[in-house]
Amino acid sequence: MFALFDRGGAQVLRRRVQLRKLEEEIAGTVKANEEAQAAATGNTSSTSNVRRLSGNTLDLSDDRLKMLKEHPADCVKELTVLARAQSPMAASPVVNNAVVMKGKVDAVPDLHEVKQALNVLHDVLSFYLSVDHRDMNKLTVFCNSLLQHDGLNRLRAFEASRDQDVRALSNSIIEKAVPAIWH
After folding, report:
1. Reduced to 3 states, what is the DSSP secondary structure of residue 149?
2. Residue-range definition of the domain harbouring residue 108
3. How many other β-carbons are positioned within 10 Å of the β-carbon of residue 85?
4. Sequence-distant contacts of 112-116: CB under 8 A, at least 24 apart
5. Cβ contact 75:124 at 8 Å
6. What is the number of structural domains in the chain?
7. Among 71, 78, 97, 170, which is disulfide-ready with 158 (CB 3.0 to 4.6 Å)?
8. pLDDT tens digits, residue range 64-108?
9. What does the pLDDT read at residue 76?
10. CB 183 within 8 A of CB 129
């Protein structure tokens, strides 16, 4: 019986060490992505839209923190925006968005709406992975929703976008979500 507890305790300890290494890797990747994004856009890190990790905590405004706490973990709205952006009608220049809106199909989102959805997905995922706000239940809901809505493939398709912000955000979400899905 004692040997069984030792193996179980060792497994728990190994898992904690792996999670800590994953946190450090994610923090490094996020920091590198944000630095590259800030350098590419010419913004300084003092702007309110740039997220950064500081001492293993997210630097979020009180309003943003409140929004993330209240935001549904499944992010269905944001994943639906990504799906609409990659629908066959989004690629067709012949389709009139006004006609589509009168029908049952939603209009194709513009670039701003896609960026906003990607920002929310990125912030929600970062929030659930952060040391101060870790919530494995909500992280599991997020990952399951991402898989259910084919989110990884949609994000991978955005890596080919001409817009650098879209590419950086989708890449960052993938880099954070894949390890979270497998753990």
Report:
1. coil
2. 2-45+52-182
3. 22
4. 113/81, 113/85, 114/81, 114/82, 114/85, 114/158, 114/166, 115/163, 115/165, 115/166, 115/169, 116/81
5. yes
6. 1
7. 170
8. 888 888 888 899 999 999 999 987 655 544 444 444 444 445 678
9. 93
10. no
